[in-house]
Design a protein that fits this description.
This protein has about 90 residues and is mostly helical. It has helices spanning about 5-25, 30-50, 55-85.
Amino acid sequence: MRKKNAAAITLMVWMLTLSSLMSLLHIPDLRLFLAYAMVGFFVIVYMIHPVFSRPGYIQSLYRMTIACTLLFGVVISLKLLELIGE
């Protein structure tokens, strides 16, 4: 199995496990789910990053990582503002 396929399957399993765990614990916060899902995405990106070669999909992966980092920052800052406001 190629790294890309294994990464996609691992991310799917991570997100399904996360959503079922949040459902069992009655946590309906979508922002929290997105934050945890992005943490899993970052871990998987780090694990499949090639060391000695540079395949074509790496540029797209870099763009996706930058977009997820920005979204993660927005989610964290909104959560902090929510905590400060209370």
